[in-house]
Specification:
The structure holds two protein chains of two kinds. By secondary structure, chain A is α/β, with parallel strands linked by helices. Chain A contains ten helices and nine strands. Classes of the chains: A alpha/beta, B mainly beta. Chain A binds chain B through residues 1, 3-6, 9-15, 18, 22-23, 25-33, 36-37, 185-188, 191-192, 221, 228-229, 232, and chain B through 5-7, 9, 14, 16-20, 22-24, 41, 49, 54-57, 59-72.
Chain lengths: 256, 75
């Protein structure tokens, strides 16, 4: 068997742009998978020298520890504003933001919507797990109706707390958005689809087409108080009906 | 007939025992070890090695990129 494990037979290994540091995310966290795919795409497209990632606050901020490219941290929710500035100062760079739902859909709603409306030439990765992961599982705008969290222990009551905010559908209505899509990353098939979407987003960015918005619906095993495999099952059963996967806007035209 | 054969190498210390890779394999080549690594996680092991095709399904879903995949054609 050891005859197969040779350099010329290599099919997959840890992305070269990953730092040596081990991910500090919880076991089974979707962030790790999404990090890997983004780094693979950056590597395949040869954008190492051009890519500038913006991380805000939340679990997503840790990306700068693991991505061996230029990174900058923004204030909570303000990643699209900082990305706008960097993109305007250095228009030939590949600027992207990597944000969670507590960041992009709550405190950063205004920045997100206005960056989308201006059609800044950036890529926004929106990792949606329906909860505030880093701070201890509080309710986020994207939390599902009836879903318990540490600040809604009896489940989210839609009458008093509102319903889940579908940011990707909202921003797709804006003319500045060139591409918007919703993907997942917990099974091999979804990972392959997500990789295509991320590649398309960076290609749009390089062709200066406008803003590309990629939402990734992931789990938060710790926040949901489940094992990683149970969390992925729960994700398919409960998150997907509320956040249906697929392209919403392609080449500046709504497809859904 | 030529056959595709694969092999995976698992970085046991990077594995966090989430076991997301276990259902990802169609050939049941990834199993859970009763042993734990230095962090205390039940890491995964390569088993049923004759069936592995080197499709990399286990590796691409691994959040910690702990799996390296090799593939070759055997005549």
């Amino acid at each position: 068997m050891s005859s197969i494990a040779k350099k010329e037979n290599l099919v997959y290994q840890r992305p070269a742009l990953r730092t040596e540091k081990e991910y500090s995310f919880c076991p089974g966290c979707g962030h790790g998978t999404v990090h890997n795919i983004i780094l693979e795409v950056i590597e395949e497209m040869g954008l190492q020298e051009k890519a500038i990632g913006i991380t805000p606050v939340g679990c997503a901020v840790l990306a700068y520890e693991f991505m061996n490219i230029d990174m900058q941290q923004a204030a909570h929710g303000r990643a699209p504003a900082l990305a706008t500035a960097i993109n305007r100062m250095m228009p030939d760079k590949a600027v992207f933001t990597y944000q969670g739902d507590g960041d992009l859909a709550a405190i950063g709603t205004a920045e997100t919507i206005h960056a989308c409306n201006r059609g800044e030439n950036i890529v926004i990765f929106f990792v949606n797990n329906g909860i505030y992961g880093m701070t201890g599982g509080q309710m986020a705008p994207t939390t599902l109706p009836g879903m318990p969290s540490s600040t809604s222990p009896y489940g989210r009551d839609v009458e008093t707390m509102g319903g889940p905010m579908k940011i990707t559908e909202m921003i797709s209505q804006l003319d500045g958005v060139y591409m918007s899509t919703r993907q997942a990353a917990h099974t091999p098939a979804y990972v392959r689809k997500l990789k295509k979407a991320i590649r398309q987003a960076f290609e749009n960015q390089q062709a200066r087409k406008g803003l590309s918005f990629v939402e990734i619906v992931t789990n938060c095993a710790s926040g949901w108080k489940k094992t990683p495999t149970d969390a992925n099952k729960w994700l398919e059963e409960n998150m997907f009906p509320v956040y249906p996967l697929g392209d919403i806007k392609i080449d500046g035209k709504l497809v859904k | 007939m030529a056959k595709i054969k694969g092999e995976i190498i698992i970085d046991v210390e990077r594995c966090k025992g989430c076991h997301v890779c276990v259902p990802a394999c169609n050939f049941k080549c990834v199993g859970v070890s009763p042993k734990v690594n230095s962090k205390g996680y039940n890491y995964v092991v390569f088993e049923n090695s004759e069936s592995c095709t080197g499709c990399a399904n286990c590796a691409i879903v691994c959040p910690d990129a702990a799996i390296t995949v090799y593939r070759t054609k055997v005549e």
